[in-house]
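Problem 12. The chain below contains 163 residues. Write out its predicted structure in token notation.
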Amino acid sequence: MAYTDRFNDVDALISNLNPIIPSLPFDVQAKFVGFLAVNAVTAYELAIKEIIEDYASSKHCDFGEYVRCALARINGRIKISDIKGELNKFGGSYKGNFETNLVSKEASVLQNTGKSLSACYDNLLTCRHRYVHASVITLTIQECVDYYNIGKNVIDALFDSMK
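Solution.
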């Protein structure tokens, strides 16, 4: 499966929710933000696992299995610093490639949207964390959707780094 396929369910969820969200009471909209944030971050997590596991398996099947087991408990530990830490285990060049790709994507996103890629990505992770652990919503539905779409660039930067 391509890592981008991990986004299909969240993308479908967004397109199906968009027409009905504005008509819902504010407190119900907030619950959908939490639900969407959980799904979006899960998609990121699965895509990250897929990219790293595919890379390891391409080097050797046993290495792929080792990495698959090591990543089994990644569970939301997908901050940019966490990704850099995982890449460092493969050698500094992968981490360097990721940082270079991330700087390029950051500049592109800033130019196109006026928003910081890393801030959007971090804000979505924070929203998910605060919702799951304290039922606190930190984003609007539109921010959640926008940040999710912008945050995909972090995953793309990882993929480009592991080629």
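Discussion. The chain is about 75% helix and 0% strand. Students who got a different answer should revisit the alignment rule from Section 12.3.
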